[in-house]
Amino acid sequence: MIQHHPGEELLLPLAAGRLSAGQALVVSVHLEGCAECRARLHTLQALGGALLEQAEPAALEAGAWERALRRIDHPAPVPAPVVPMPAAHPALPDGVPWPASLGGCRVTAWRWMGPGMRYARIGMPHDPAAALFLLRIGEGRSLPRHTHGGVELTQVLCGTFDDGRAVFGPGDFDAADEAVHHQPVVQPGATCVCLAYVGARMRFDGRIASLIGDWIGM
Ligand SMILES: [Zn+2]
Fold first, then answer.
1. Tens digit of pLDDT for each residue in 22-52?
2. Nearest 10 degrees: Cα torsion 40, 159, 1, 168
3. Which of 27, 52, 190, 208 has the most Cβ atoms closer than 10 angstroms to its Cβ?
4. CA of 64 to the centre of ligand 1 (A)
5. Do 110 and 121 contact (CB within 8 A), yes or no?
6. Range name among 4-13, 24-33, 61-70, 155-164 with the lowest pLDDT average
7. Residue 82: what pLDDT?
8. What is the pLDDT of residue 48?
């Protein structure tokens, strides 16, 4: 049962195609498992279409119609198709499906980031610089206490964590920013795997955690 969903401040720009690729990817993985948010997105898209239809007609520049016809006759060169990335990806716990939205991404193997903690870097073909990570954290383990330099989006693929604000389980979505200072602790029972978008570097309280954060680029 999903308890935490992305807000309108993310779904609206997603509907309008204005959300950054990294953020859109995390929201898309949430949508894969959340019929409620898919319905909300559909409503927002329909609303956007209705607004466009009601917009006042605007006068076109002289010659616009002829230019459009010429472009149809002589289309611009089509960019080479994006070659799908290899399907290899780091293993998820048994029974946890690989999100379809990550299909075109390049994903590293699991790498050590602390006792009981691993991360994998995700590279998006059309925005390789976006800071996207998979985090795999064992039960009872916790991420070091931190705040954020900007927005941080998290989608739980499996397991459960409690960061003092709320408990986040499979399918849940979280958005945090500079105002949130937290320490996610993985609850007993299962390993937790999350997809995370880090808009600006995390600010860890501890010196060692800061060094590891620098090293990972998180
Ligand atoms: Zn949702």
1. 999 999 999 999 999 999 999 999 987 777 7
2. -60
3. 27
4. 42
5. no
6. 61-70
7. 55
8. 79
How far apart are the CA of 150 and the centre of ligand 1, in A?
Answer: 22
Domain that holds residue 157: 104-216
Vertex 152, ends 15 and 26: CA angle to 5°?
Answer: 45
Q: CATH no. for residue 167?
A: 2.60.120.10
Ligand 1 centroid to residue 22 C-alpha, Å: 18
Q: Which residue has the tokens 């230019």?
A: 67
For tokens 């320490």, the residue is 183
**d(C-alpha 138, C-alpha 90), whole Å:** 16
201 lies in some domain = yes
Query: Coil, strand or helix: which one is 117?
Result: strand
How far away, in angstroms, is 67 Cα from ligand 1 center? 43
Whether residue 8 is contained in a domain is answered as no
Q: Is the pLDDT of residue 80 over 70?
A: no
* Ligand 1 geometric centre to CA of 13 (Å): 16
pTM for the model: 0.81
